[in-house]
Write a structure and sequence with these properties.
Strand content: 15-25%
Helix content: 55-70%
Order of helices and strands: HEHHEEHHEEEH
Structural class: alpha+beta
Number of strands: 6
Oligomer: single chain
């Protein structure tokens, strides 16, 4: 009984992780996944890490590294597995996942929508990468700029996060503006 129970529990725990990602509809950080699962006492931290690793190895999750952040995305195969085994997750757990997604989706998407990171380059400069995504995760704008100091890089990241909507509006309207002074194109 115990071997069968533990195998069944193992499979259910992995499905819970897949279902959480499926319902959220965007990639989630390791800490966001842990926060939900630990809060609900579904599994302990070390089991979560083991399951995430196994799900990635199986090809059901894709792992990406971003600064100090590890994010997981459901793959097409993971989606297929989830749809096939959805009945193995209790309705109670499904409802808890749905509630969590409803209450946290907007916050998580907003945190994911604006990115600003910098990286040291070999010549001593810093590459600053800033991005803005819509709430489906599609890229609206991305810029990369090289600066000479870490201080400049940090300022750009801070200002981008604080004023991104203004920058996006101004940049878009200035790029899309009709240039009345330009000579007419030759036929």
């Amino acid at each position: 009984m115990s071997m069968q129970y533990s195998t069944k529990k193992l499979a259910e725990n992995k499905l819970i992780i897949l279902h959480l990602l499926q319902k959220m509809g965007i990639s989630l950080s390791n800490s966001e996944i842990c926060q939900f699962l630990l809060e609900k006492n579904y599994m302990d931290y070390f089991s979560i890490q083991q399951y995430l690793s196994e799900l990635e190895t199986a090809g059901w999750l894709e792992k990406t590294q971003e600064q100090n952040n590890t994010r997981y995305t459901l793959t097409d195969d993971g989606e297929e597995v989830m749809n096939y085994f959805i009945t193995r997750i209790s309705d109670e757990v499904k409802n808890e996942i749905n509630t969590y997604v409803r209450e946290n989706s907007k916050r998580i998407r907003a945190e994911y929508a604006v990115t600003a990171n910098y990286f040291p380059e070999l010549n001593g400069d810093f590459l600053v990468k800033c991005g803005l995504c819509d709430d489906t995760g599609a890229t609206l704008m991305e810029i990369s700029v090289s600066v000479v100091s870490k201080n400049q890089a940090q300022n750009i990241c801070r200002n981008w996060k604080k004023n991104v909507n203004q920058y996006y509006r101004e940049f878009l309207s200035s790029l899309a503006a009709e240039d009345t002074a330009a000579p007419a194109e030759e036929e």
